[in-house]
Amino acid sequence: MTVYQRIVILTGAGLSAESGLSTFRDKDGIWARYDYRDVATPEGFARNPSLVYDFYNQRRRDGMGVQPNAAHRALAKLEDAFPGDVVIVTQNIDGLHEAAGSRNLIHMHGQMAQALCALCNARSPWVEDLSADLACSACATPGGMRPDVVWFGEMPYDLDQIAAALSSCDLFISIGTSGNVYPAAGFVAAARDIGAHTVELNLEPSEGASLFAEHVHGPATEVVPAYVDKLLSVSA
Ligand code: BJW
User: Fold this and answer.
1) Separation of 233 CA from ligand 1 center, angstroms?
2) Which tens digits make up the pLDDT trace of 197-230?
3) Residues with Cβ < 8 Å from 210, sequence gap 6 or more?
4) Ligand 1 pocket, residue 181 CB under 6 Å
5) pLDDT tens digits for 85-112?
6) Distance 119 CA to ligand 1 centre (A)
7) H or E segment to which residue 50 belongs
8) Secondary structure (3-state) at 125
């Protein structure tokens, strides 16, 4: 195995599946129970805010007490022990990477444990249920508080920082994501274009599997720790 210096890791819902959180597009996933247009678009929120508050309040409650799994822990170990740079770009809104100890982390689709004020754009830590009548702690105005998550049609967070990391990486690893949602689904092409080695670690071949140079298929709790150990054994 080649010795790498700058690793970008993209993670998706499959990474947290074995911690007990639902994925979106698997047959028993969230989109089998909800229409994304109702709960994950600004138009859906404008149409029926109560439905969207209930959807995210329930998911926030479901996430409480959920623990990181062996794959989250392996990625935190990689960041600690790898002599070069490791950045994790996660599409997940759970806090399991942080709970496992990862620090160099970008939440491109927002975070469940934060609220966003649509009136002043302040983002604040949030663990309680959200509702329409709450006031923002920054601007004190009620009526604008919403989950700090990126819905379809909205701009993901920190794209400049992500583009900078992708433009200098020599290894790109995608874990537990179906490759359906852009711009994240386009990161592999960006990494490949600058000559990085590209690897997919997923339960099964994803939508964009043919874009990756290397594939390891299996549950994240098995394939991620094994891949991390391989990387660390050659970089030592
Ligand atoms: C396991 C496992 C185990 C299971 N072990 N693996 C270009 C072309 C076409 C369309 C577009 C385009 N550019 C933009 C769009 C529009 C749109 C889009 O992508 N639409 C597509 C549906 C076609 N994108 C947007 O609107 C985005 N914004 C945007 O693009 O702004 C403008 C812009 C343009 C160009 C450049 C820059 C900006 C915003 C997207 C927001 C997505 N939001 C959601 C919901 C909010 C957060 C939340 O509620 O949690 O984010 S949707 C949902 O999908 C969520 C996820 O983060 C995201 C990705 O899902 P993920 O993680 O891949 O989950 P699954 O379920 O799909 O896959 C799980 C995988 O794990 C599977 O493969 C399983 O096999 C595997 N697995 N168990 C390992 N144990």
Assistant:
1) 32
2) 999 999 999 989 999 999 999 999 999 999 999 9
3) none
4) yes
5) 999 999 999 999 999 999 999 999 999 9
6) 26
7) helix 49-63
8) strand
- Angle, in degrees to the nearest 10, between helices 70-81 and 220-235: 10
Whether 109 is catalytic is: yes
Strands (E), 12-52: none
Block residue for tokens 């991390």: 228
- H/E stretch holding 227 reads helix 220-235
Please give the C-alpha separations between residue 21 and each of 6, 87, 90, 192, in angstroms, as whole numbers.
30, 23, 15, 31
CA of 178 to the centre of ligand 1 (A): 7
The CB density around residue 37, as the number of other CB atoms within 10 Å, is 12
Token pair belonging to 18: 């074995």
The model's confidence at residue 236, banded by pLDDT at 50, 70 and 90, is: low
Q: Give CA–CA dist 172/192, Å, rounded.
A: 8
List strands edge to edge, sheet with 85-90.
105-107, 85-90, 6-11, 171-175, 197-202, 214-217
Atom of ligand 1 nearest to the CA of 206: 73
* Nearest C-alpha neighbor of 46 from the set 54, 35, 38: 38
Tell me which residue has tokens 């927002």.
110
Rounded Cα distance, 226 and 148, in Å: 34
For the question of whether the overall pTM of this predicted structure is more than 0.85, the answer is yes
Residues in the chain: 236
